[in-house]
Structures are given as structure tokens and as C-alpha cells.
């Protein structure tokens, strides 16, 4: 990846993406998938993921516009990255909402990318816990925000000491 300083990423074909006040994010674009990018089977899940995923925390932070986020995501897909990681804990619901809009606008084939998101629970007493009810509600809300029929990977963002593991299934 090309490194740069400042708030503009210079792409190797002469176009740049301004990142505003966001920290520098190295980007690159080639006509073919990025050299060195490999794909691996994710266990026995049937998913084949790129060895580099794109975490969306910096992309959907307050200093990055919708247009900038879309340009970065398109560049990732064009470069062969197919794994996108989201978390409600990092950007609230913005990442899922914006990614859902971008996916719909771009018309990407659903099987061409892998979405991983995390179930997060607040420390507020009315939002606390990882009960079956909370997990189902959280996944349903993520599906709606992402405008998808399924999410490939769901992770628990942090353990809930008040909810035993056997109560989660």
C-alpha cells in the first residue's frame, strides 16, 4: 500500500480521495485485484474471504462524508477486498445505515462480499444483556439498517457476565 501524509490519498492512477479531518488511510486502486491479496476459506462455513478486510470504524466516523465513504468502499471492492467489518459500538448505527445505502446504490451481488457485524449492549440497565431476545432484536435491526436478507458473521462485541453462555442459544 502506498503511504502518504496529510488528508488526501493519492491513488496510483492519479485520482485522490480527500479524507477531511480523518487520519490518513492508505488506499490503492488497480485494474485487477491487489497483488498479494489472497482468499481463504473461513473454517467450514462456505465463506471465502480476502486476507485483508475493511473495518468501517474510520470510514463512517464524523470527519468522513458519505461520498468519501462510498469512494473508499468502491475502491476496496475494486481492489478485491470482500470482507467488511462493522460494529454498532464504534459508529452507532451510521456504519450499517450508510453501508446498506452504498450496497444498494452500487448494486453489488450479495455473494460477492462478506459482512461481519457485532452485537453490542449498552451499560444502560434497559439495554443490558445478551439474552436470546436481545440477540434476535439486534440482528433484526442490523438486517434492516443494512438492507440485507442475511448477515454472514455475527460476533458478540463484549461478554455479558450476567447472562450465562447456555442461555444464549
UniProtKB/TrEMBL annotation:
Spell out the GO cellular component terms annotated for this protein, sorted alphabetically and separated by semicolons: voltage-gated potassium channel complex
Q: Which UniProt keywords apply?
A: Ion channel, Ion transport, NADP, Oxidoreductase, Transport
Residue ranges of domain NADP-dependent oxidoreductase in the record: 52-165
| Molecular function (Gene Ontology), one example | potassium channel regulator activity
- Keyword set includes DNA repair: no
Highest taxon above the source species: Eukaryota
Biological process GO annotation list?
Answer: monoatomic ion transmembrane transport; regulation of potassium ion transmembrane transport
Kindly give the SUPFAM superfamilies that the UniProt entry links to this protein.
Answer: NAD(P)-linked oxidoreductase
Q: Does the keyword NADP apply?
A: yes
Per the similarity annotation, which family is this?
Belongs to the shaker potassium channel beta subunit family.
> Under what name is this protein listed?
Voltage-gated potassium channel subunit beta-1
